[in-house]
Input
Amino acid sequence: MGGGPLAGIKVVELAGIGPAPFCAMLLADLGADVVRVDRPGAGSDRHDLLNRGKRSVVVDLKQERGPAAVRALAARADVLLEGLRPGVAERLGVGPQDCARDNPALVYGRMTGWGQDGPLASTAGHDVDYIALTGMLHAIGREGGPPQVPANLLGDFGGGALYLAVGVLAALLEARGSGRGQVVDAAIVDGAAHLGSMLFGFLAAGGWSTRRGTNLLDTGAPHYDVYETADGEHVAVGALEPKFYAALLDGLGLTGEVPDRDDPANWPALRERFAAEFRRRTRDEWAQVFAGTDACVAPVLSMAEAADHPHVAARGTLTERDGVRQPAAAPRFSRTPNAPPGPVAAPGAHAAEVARDWDVPADLLDPTPGA
Output
C-alpha cells in the first residue's frame, strides 16, 4: 500500500495456497492494495512471506453474510484472485458473474493446475503433476538418471503465479479502454508448457533430444554444468560463447591441447578434465580465480549464504523484515520505486480499516463467528 507502479489498484484475494497467494504478494510488492479474505480459524505465521504486504479480513463464505462481503469488496476492486477448483466459487456465490453484476470492469483471475476445462479440470494435482504432463519434468535431469523435481518453482510459481500476474495486468490494461473486465484462466499446465517454448522449437528443428542430460543446456555439455570442488561444494559453469569458454580454459589452467567442444563425442573427455581440475580447489578459491573474468563461473550458494555475496548485498536483492530474511520486490522501476516489503498480515487484523478505506459496511467484515 506504499509506493510502486500499481499504487491505487485494489485487489481482493480469496485465501488459498501456493501460486495465487504468490501472485497477490507480487502485486502487493508492486504497490497494489491487496485485501486477503481469510477463512475463520486461519493461523498467523510471520514466516509466511506469501502473505506479506497485504491486509486481511476474515469471512466465512458458508455463512449468509460471507458471499455478500466478498461481493461488496469485489464491487470496489480492480482485480479478484482465486485458486479454488473449477465451479467452487460459483457454488459459494462469488464466481465471476456474481462479482461482475456490480462491477463490470472487474478482472477475475483464476488460478488452477489443470485449467477451467478439460478432462482433468476437476481432479486434484500438484506442481509436479502439472509439469509432468507438459514434458518439462521429463527434460530435467542427468543422462541415465530419473527426472529431477525443481522444487515447485517451475510449476506453481513460474508457470502459475507469474502467468496469472501477467494475465490480470494485461486484462486491466485492456479494461481501461473497453470499460469491461474479463476472466483470466491461468493454468499451471499451460504456463509450464509456455515456458518451454524455446525447447519445443529446438526439438522441432532437430536440435534437442528427448534423452535428457545430453543437450547443450541440460548438463549434457561439459561447459554448461555444475562441478564439485575440493570442499564438497559446487561451482556453476555457463561458458557457452567461445570467448567465455576461452576464459574458462584459462582459469582452469588448461592451456594445452583440449578436445574440440563442438563435437559432442568429445564431451565425456572434456567433462573428466574439468571435473579433475575443479576438484583441486575449494569453491571459494575458484570464485577468487574467476572473479572479474567473463568465464561465466559462479559459486553455488545456499539460500543461507546468498545474502552475503557482494553482488546480492550491493543490490539489496535480499532484505530483512521483522527478523525474517526475504527477497526484496522485483523488478525495479526508475520513477515509481517499490516500497520495502510490507509486514505479514495476521488474519482478520484489518477489518475496520478495510471497511473504512474501501467503503464497505463494517458489519459485513465483522469477524465474529456467525456474523
Notes: The CA atoms of residues 31 and 49 lie 16 Å apart.
